[in-house]
Prior knowledge:
Elements: E1 3-5, H1 17-22, H2 26-31, E2 32-34, H3 35-44, H4 53-107
Antiparallel strand pairs: 1-2
Function: May be involved in the negative control of osteogenic differentiation of osteochondrogenic precursor cells in peripheral zones of fetal cartilage and at the cartilage-bone interface.
Protein name: Unique cartilage matrix-associated protein
Keywords: Coiled coil, Extracellular matrix, Secreted, Signal, Sulfation
Amino acid sequence: xxxxxxxxxxxxxxxxxxxxxxxxxxxxxxxxxxxADASNFFRRRSRRGVKSQDExxxxxxxxxxxxxxxxxxxxxxxxxFESLAEEEGDEQDERTRENTEQWREFHYDGMYPPHxxxxxxx
Length: 122
């Protein structure tokens, strides 16, 4: 019969001579498991092994949480960009309005409506 290390064991150690005289299998019982149990342990966690429904649900929740964080991040970035673009557009509109007012004041000829064709040519 073959024996394998237990998954709960952090390290393996050789029992000292004092413990071997009292109970030679005492420390081994905590670290070693039967081959059938060990192969079942590794089969459950192998790369191609079928996952339990709990593992599938946990992974799905993690994927959904990551998707939600990504969606929130991109929504925040999009909102920042939209507000920045709106501010820049408002500033451009204000500059255009100021320039138009200055042009109209400079070119106003006292007639209404103040258009170029109302000017008197000499």
